[in-house]
Amino acid sequence: MKTVCVFDSGVGGLSVLRALLAHLPDVRFVYLADSGHAPYGDRSPDWVQERAHQITAGLCDAFRPDAVVVACNTATALAIDSLRQRWPVLPFVGVEPALKPAVALSLSGQIGVMATKGTVDSARFAALRQRLESTHACHFHAVACRGLADAIERDDPVAIRGLVHRYVQALRSMAPEDQSIDTLVLGCTHYPFVADIIAEAAGPGMRLVDTGEPVARRTRDILGLGSACHARAPLPKFFSTGDPSVLEGLVARWLGLDTAARAWTA
Ligand code: DGL
After folding, report:
1. Based on the domain organization, do 231 and 168 belong to the same domain?
2. Peptide bond between residue 39 and the one before it cis (omega within 30 degrees of 0)
């Protein structure tokens, strides 16, 4: 049975794990929440790169995975190239804001992107955005949602609501007067867990897009698993560099899994 390690700056990558579990029930998963160092969004690119290397090295030593899913847009944007260089034989699957699917869905061509500062400012995001804007009739309006992943990490409903309203409002004011944003990309893996609050703030008719499903399909392809599932894997193992009981509670609430999380020191 294949083993896949999944990591994020914190609990947000559980939104990716949810899709992975649905598409790859025959894979053994290990999830590491780096909550002790979250959020990554405002850290320097060098710091995020170093941290992603440290985590990957620890996961490789402990679990010898067949693939690693970087379930964090920020770490993917800032570190996935260097991870692939350092571990050339190990397959990495990254998570990027779903700009391309959003282009296919949008009727107005005006697309909002909510992501961390690290992702919005990255060269990788700029290149993807430019490529699509130069080949399709579309325009991306990106807002760096400072503090939002952290508020989700802290499970602070008042802060979440306030920040969501502020950033959705900011996006609205970026669109031209005669065309409104009709599609909103959730470019941080923490945000799908507050999708209902974002949808409510954005109003009716706004389509929200995230990346869990395509990442799960890509992971299945990379592992060469085909569509038939012959075995059922045991429950994933969960680790946190922060408080494991917080991860445990969110795993129960968001994934419906009753299982222990353990502390990870690295
Ligand atoms: N969940 C992460 C992402 O997808 C990062 C959030 C953060 O730590 O700032 O970008």
Report:
1. no
2. yes
Shared domain for 79 and 103, answered yes or no, is no
Q: Are 259 and 251 in contact (CB under 8 A)?
A: yes
Q: How many domains does the chain have?
A: 2
Query: Are 108 and 138 in a shared domain?
Result: yes
Within 10 A of 199 (CB to CB), how many other CB atoms are there? 16
Determine which residue's CA is closest to atom 9 belonging to ligand 1. 41
Q: What was the pLDDT predicted at 263? A: 98
Is 86 found in the same domain as 74? yes
Q: 4-62, pLDDT tens digit by residue?
A: 999 999 999 999 999 999 999 999 999 999 999 999 998 999 999 999 999 999 999 99
Position in ligand 1 atom list of the atom nearest CA 188: 4
* Residue of 14, 124, 189 to test ligand 1 pocket, by largest number of atoms within 8 Å of CB: 189
Domain that holds residue 195: 99-210
Specify whether the CB–CB gap between 73 and 95 falls below 8 A.
yes
Q: How many CB atoms lie within 10 A of CB 64?
A: 10
CATH number for the domain harbouring residue 51:
3.40.50.1860
Query: What amino acid occupies position 94?
Result: G
CA-CA distance, 24 to 52, in Å (whole number)?
24
Q: Which of 5, 138, 145, 188 is catalytic?
A: 188
Judge if 256 and 245 occupy the same domain: yes
Q: What are the φ and ψ backbone dihedral angles of 48, each rounded to 5 degrees? A: -65, -40
Are both 108 and 80 inside the same structural domain?
Answer: no
Cα 36 to Cα 264: distance, rounded to the nearest angstrom: 10
Whether 224 and 199 share a structural domain: no
Cα of 55 from ligand 1 centre, angstroms: 15
